[in-house]
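Submission sheet (multi-component)
Chains listed below:
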Amino acid sequence: MQKIHKILIGIAFSPNLKPNLFEAIRIANMFNAELIGVHVGEKTAQKEADLNQVISEADRLHVPLKTIWQQGKPVAVILKTAAVENVDLLILGALQKENLLKYYVGSIARKITRKVGCSILLLIKPSIERQACKHIVVNGLKDKNTAETIRTSVLFCTHLLCKKMTIVEEISQSELQVQVDDDKSLRRATIAKERLKNREDQRINTILKGIPCDHITIKTQSIFGRRGYSIGHYAKVKRADLLIMNAPRKLGLLDRIFPHDIEYILSELPTDVLIVK
Amino acid sequence: MQKKNPFKTFLGEIPQNLFSGFVVSLIALPLGLGLALASGAPPISGIIAAIVGGIVVSLLGGSKVTITGPGNGLVVVILSAITILGEGNAYQGYLFTLAAIVISGILLIILGFLRMGALGDFFPSSAIQGMLAAIGIGIFAKQIHVMFGNLNAKGSIIELLIQIPEGIIHFVSTSEKSAFYAGLIGIISLLIMVFYSKIRNRYFQLIPAPMWIVVLSVGLYYYFELFTTAAYPIDTSLLIDLPNDVFGSFAFPDFGKIYELEFIGAVISITLIASIESLLSIKAVDKLDPLKRRSNINKDIRALGLATVISGFLGGLNVVTVIARSSVNVNNKGSNRSANFFHALFLVAFILLFATELRKIPLAALAAILVFTGYKLAAPENIKKVFKIGSEQLLIFIATLLVTISTSLILGILVGIIITFVIHVIINKNGVLFFKNILKPNVLMFTEEGKYYVSVKNFSSFLNYTKLKSKLDQIPETKEAIVDFSLCDFVDHSVMENMNNYSETFERKGGHFEVIGLDDAKPGSAHPFALRKILPKQMSPKEGVLTKRQKYIQKISEEMQYSYDAFSDLKIEELPSFGYFKTRKLDKISNVLTKNDCTIFDVQFSEGEMIAKQVIKATMFHIQTQNKLPKFTLDKEGVFEYLLHFAGYKDIEINAHPDFNKRFYLSGKNEEKIRAFFTDELILFLESNKQYHIEATNTGLLILSKERLASVNEIKALAYFGAGLQKIIEKC
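Outcome: structure written.
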């Protein structure tokens, strides 16, 4: 099971600094982890004062904050710090207001996601006051990393005091192998769907067997649709507070042109997203 | 239910299908001849198409009660192909066109295998309407001259239309006996077509109108032949020309022009129209089928393609599914594909047995049948219908129509698509919405408690309709489906029309199909198919056009004796004091149903701020209570979603009701009062009903089930539950 000892957060002096930092501090405390803040840019007295001001208003950190000031390109610095400090979780907060934000978070996140070695938490709705995390949606893809992701999700659920988790099994339409044309094929397709759904549920249940999770209500939901896309849309419809995904295997040029899996989520960010590595 | 042996059923139904096939063949014979003539092809080519179509599609097709043969939509396309490709030589043009028909058949087969046979789904429906009307005008313009006995009218569609008054004057004042008599037969035939449906005589109705025309004109010939000394006044050039050896000499296609642009254009037009006409007909016939079967459209398209290839090689026209003949088939109790097969056999018999008689039919009589079909395609009622849906639809319709008749069909439909898209962009003042999202998947479907829930994002128009359709087609029509457009900014007319079709199909087959999330969208007009654009938040239309859901609600409100106000500006003072709304900002309330102290309403509220802001719409039930209540929340055990507002309070156990304690999570401040409040009767009521989330303040109760708008059935259930609860609480 994953343990989270060190959390890294990028600090940008934007209007969102306060909510971002508050959120990160809360999460660090929930995991009893060390929080490291990295700012890409010059260290000035003004910035330092601002930062201290915000921290003084926040909850007390269980482990004191470590700040790193470094100049360079944001993505490169963050990646390097994450590697050097050997962090377990990288938090990327909302950086800027306006509607462009989602895209902006998405584009930096995409760059980082491709290269970073640790899990990433993308916050699109950080808040100063605690908003309880009520519903977590997790992917249940048939993938060798899924078991690990589900284990991490249970860990998060436990630490974030979330009581409800839905594991979404995305089943690609082609797996159905029945095309609906008329009444007969529709009947066959409906039966085939039921069978696939049971198979997927069984697979998830086998994974869950080894994880202590009695304190959480876990539901499974199978969806026939485009991978990566359906789960994002589902999280939005169900207004989940956190969406947890496997890290992508590899992302090439083609993936960016023809988005699939995680790219859909990064381009739309339906809610806060955790990518587990 | 006992399962019947399908073969036995088939045998048992043969007589009725035989009869139905016979009646259909009576229509198919004159129509086949007429459509071929109107297309500028030899008359026999239409009959060949009907025979080949009937045999091939009945054996390999995927629909049940459709009839196949030459279609009226193709008349204009084939006529222009013959004229253009023939460059003055009509017969050579016909041979080239046969090659185009063969290739279009191959294309249809390929499209069928790629499961893209339903080309019509890719086009805006008003543009298709405009195109069909243009085809109607094309047929009308050409055939009305033939009907008046004038074979020599030439020119574009517009020129032909302008020549009509001239043609009438010429007909009245002509000294040419032959043309005058032909015209007279034409006019009488047209009158038969027009008044046929108005004559309520059982014996007269036994024979379909087109066959009456054939019978009467052949009868007239024999009258002259047998009873008078005068010669038949109509010249042979104005009579149908059938080859002497009908099935001995087939024309063979000439593939000499396949690389030329005009040829490719012809192939595309033929394929497009063949697919659209067939699809529209199949869909319409499925609605008529008394056994409510669903046709396999792609299989049917493949069979039609194959039939077209064979027909083309034998010198016949394209084979498409035709609506008029199919509906006659259904009306005469045709129950399976054998009716189509028998109709083909009867045609063979007619041609072999009555070739001599058929040669006596004046062209004008057949032209009258076509004038009537052309008029029906372009009838002013159709234009009125489109206009009712919205003035922008009329613009699309007229533009497509005008471009189609003045240039070509492909250009016409292209213009229709472009105009529709531009109008959508203008209405939304936003092109990015479309460009950014057009390729993205936008439909999510999952099952929830046995219901199918479909959510559509971004926008839904003809551009991405197939994505929605492919999901909806997977829902058994006997189930309950909810389509939620609340994440959509824009829904266009084509989609609305299709949703209506789905709703009808589901209703017919015993299921339920409901569209939600459009109630506060601004409609383009009062018509149920009008496009809808979601309004900015917190703006509700003061007065507007009710959506289908709202109309249903109105209906059930009468049944349940609630008063209903769709655009109410009611404020429920108490609402914000409920724990549920502590962290949520109320925007507006609509669709309010009230009775006594109960209110059912749709509420829109938001969570979070800025980009994280989520707008949520849900249906809730509120009761203003007479007695003072203890504050509490009650929920399904295990659903902790709503409960955090009461964090710190434990689950209150009620003595002697272990089952209740297991299933419900009850919390609140004043445990004692709450325990006293939950009487045995109340607990029994709660246990025996669906579990809702219930919250109480001192003076009111709030009941909700899901954080989304409820379907009408769900509203009914909610109202029933609320009323029961109110009754019990009043007693407490």
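Remark: Residues 435-535 of chain B form a domain with the Transcription Regulator spoIIAA fold (CATH 3.30.750.24).
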